[in-house]
Amino acid sequence: MTLHVIAVYHNTESRFLPYEPGHALTQVISYWRRLPAFAKAERTASWIYGLFNVDLDQLQTCRETLSGEADFLIACTYRLLRLRSMSTGDVIAITANERTTWLACEFGGWRRIDPPNNITGEPFTAGTIHQHLRRDRRA
């Protein structure tokens, strides 16, 4: 098993349309997960897309397994942060063995892209959670 760091970026310029170089992306969450070393980036991206779009009731039924519980908890966190569903134009970065693969969500799958240059947001940390909680208290 190899540690994979998965970062999700919402496209703030072109929701529901394909990502184009230069589009503004905001990192909304990152997730560390041990996966097989041979895990394909596109398959990992599809799995993450599913977690952040599927009804939580479906994930609830798989909680008795270690990976099922981890999936359920990250999907719950995503929703508790009030993040919108992933859609065409959003981007996922998957880092394993010091190599990052960037993938743009397309209408029918994933397209490998060069590293984007218009990125904001921060990795998922205790600090970013505290910021979300403070913002929610003010709202």
TrEMBL record:
Protein name from the UniProt record: Uncharacterized protein
Species for this entry: Micromonospora carbonacea
